[in-house]
Amino acid sequence: MLAFSQIAADQFLSWGWRVPFLLSIILVGIGLWIRLSILETPIFARLVAERRIERTPIVEVIKRQPKEIILSALARMAEQAPFYIFTAFVFAYGVGTLKVSRDFLLVAVLAASVLSFFTIPLSGHLSDRIGRRNMYMLGAVTTGVFGFIYFALLDSGSLALIFLAIFLAIFLAIFLALIPHDMMYGPQAAFIAESFTGRLRYSGASLGYQFASVIAGGPAPLIAAWLFAVYHSAYAIAGYILVCAILSLVAAALMKDYTGKDIAAEYA
After folding, report:
1. Which class for 98: exposed (0-12), middle (13-18), buried (19 or more C-beta within 10 A)?
2. Mean pLDDT throughout 76-81?
3. Three-state DSSP class for 246?
């Protein structure tokens, strides 16, 4: 995106953004190759061997575990909504309101993404030690507080502090070596998947995960733009992030934590 922002210049919004968008098909191919190369989980492999695969898993998981689907979706509110505000809405806000160049914002988000490459697995590793639910709830609390810090830094008018704000959206504090989004995203896959029985795990986790994209991730930039237009203050957006964090905090508290437990017997 940064490269084509330079190449397309004033034509970026008309055609420049389309090229990296189309090139992302390469990432789809890489993801498919990885998925086809890894083994199934031991629980699912055993279910296949015993011919206990559910024929209508989506219908069955909705009937048997609707609570887990809803809680999974709500638990992602604090991860999904702020992420798209920090990485998508920030371009409209930064360019339109703060009059900062698009390339400057791209570089800042890119730098934060590089850090996320390390902090996501780190957060997952830490969740193995302190518990997935504990780690997730800690991330939700941090996210709720950080929304106000983030916009305070953005509105400072200093280019250095604007860069720092975006950077800290994924790297909250150096001395903690953790960041709000990744503190939840690291343990999220295991935390959600372990909530569902083995025969319904893939469908249940997918429904909860994608439902969150509909209620949190997708509309977040639109809601942020609407809040700013109505209240003329970025702190209204920070309040929205706080509400999302509270919802995730409650949902995560209601989910079971199977960290370090053998779930094969109970959930096969």
Report:
1. middle
2. 93
3. helix
